[in-house]
Amino acid sequence: MKKYSLLDLPFSECKKIFEQLQLKKFVAKQIFHWIYQKNIYDFDKMSNISLNSRKIIKQNFMISDAKIIKISSDEKKETFKFLLQFPDKNSIEMVAMHFKYGWSICLSSQVGCNMKCKFCASGNKTKVRNLKPSEFILQYILAKKYISNLFHKNITNIVIMGIGEPFDNFDNLITTLKIFTNPFGLAIGPKHITISTCGICPKILELAKLMPKINLAVSFHGPNDKIRSELMPINNVYNCDLLIKTCKKYCSLTKNRITLEYLLLDNVNDHEKHALELIKRIKGLNCYVNLIPYNQIQKSNFIRSAKIEKFFDILKRNQILVKIRQERGNAIEAACGQLRILHGQ
Ligand code: SF4
């Protein structure tokens, strides 16, 4: 008999199946509490659930698993990169980073990615499959356990910005967000979660309707269609004008401020004229711009820009909210996709 994977189920769905199995309503709450609040995954240890209910649960449910096969960290022990393997031998990476405000984790959303962004190591690896909600949740659970054992600290922020395009795995993403934010699930405030997209416009608006409190970051990287299409083929489908128009609509629907990511590449998108073009294009958009220094990857034709400060100053002078992203994990190849590629997966 095929068993339900408990970590794939949002609370409402779990309750529905429990009711169909004639289990008492409160058992769903109890099991969520054991898993997500007490970190107990063995049904036999869930002592306040009756033996008969446990028997039914064991017959019908399982808890998925994954194992960490490699961990790298920087010297200061402020960044940890994990290579995680699932039972089907597919692997992904996740990164935990310590900031002033606490620990943040960057999760992957797919094995590989089909978006083919030219600057991205993951973009070289075609999508193998989407991650299931349980596989998002396991990344969080395993990193949380590791950080808590080492530093006795919790993970306070989640960004879905690792391997994959989260909006290309939309249904599983939404289920995951429900489990992350449900008070009986991981009970993480939506303001502590950020989704990063390469700019899939219809899904930006769907997120605004389904999960309006989640933060959104959009990878922009090019001030015009010519540059952006060269860097990000998705721009041939959803161009700069449409993307900015969609972002404005998202902001008016959610009242959120959006983050625009802008990776600075030498002689590609880092000239003064590009800064001025960007300023003009994002006029009237409630956003702040996050300038990202390029982290050189193997076999890359791109070079890190030396004009980051100048670009920053131009934006600042023109009243754009802007910051330069704090660099993390360069020494451990913590740029998107690198650990997995180096590991030969
Ligand atoms: S940057 Fe993100 S969307 Fe683009 S190829 Fe890499 S993983 Fe995919």
- Shape field: elongated
User: What is the radius of gyration?
Assistant: 21 Å
Q: Could you tell me which ligands this complex binds, including any ions or cofactors?
A: iron/sulfur cluster
Tell me roughly what share of residues is in helical segments. 25-40%
In CATH, the architecture of the largest domain is: Alpha-Beta Barrel
Q: Under CATH, the topology of the largest domain is which? A: TIM Barrel
Task: Describe it.
This protein has helices at residues 11-20, 25-37, 51-60, 133-151, 170-181, 201-210, 225-231, 240-254, 272-281, 308-317, 338-342, and strands at residues 4-5, 61-62, 67-73, 79-85, 91-99, 102-107, 110-111, 129-130, 155-160, 193-197, 215-219, 258-264, 287-293, 321-324. The chain has 345 residues and is α/β, with parallel strands linked by helices. It folds into two domains: 4-62, DNA polymerase, domain 1 (Orthogonal Bundle); 67-342, TIM Barrel (Alpha-Beta Barrel). It has a ten-stranded mixed β-sheet with strand order 3-4-5-6-9-10-11-12-13-14, with helices on one face. The protein has a two-stranded parallel sheet with strand order 1-2. Strands 7-8 form a two-stranded antiparallel ribbon. Helix 6 (201-210) links the parallel strand 10 and strand 11 (215-219). Helix 9 packs parallel to helix 10 (308-317). The chain is elongated and about 70 Å long. The model is unreliable at 335-345 (pLDDT under 50). The structure holds iron/sulfur cluster.
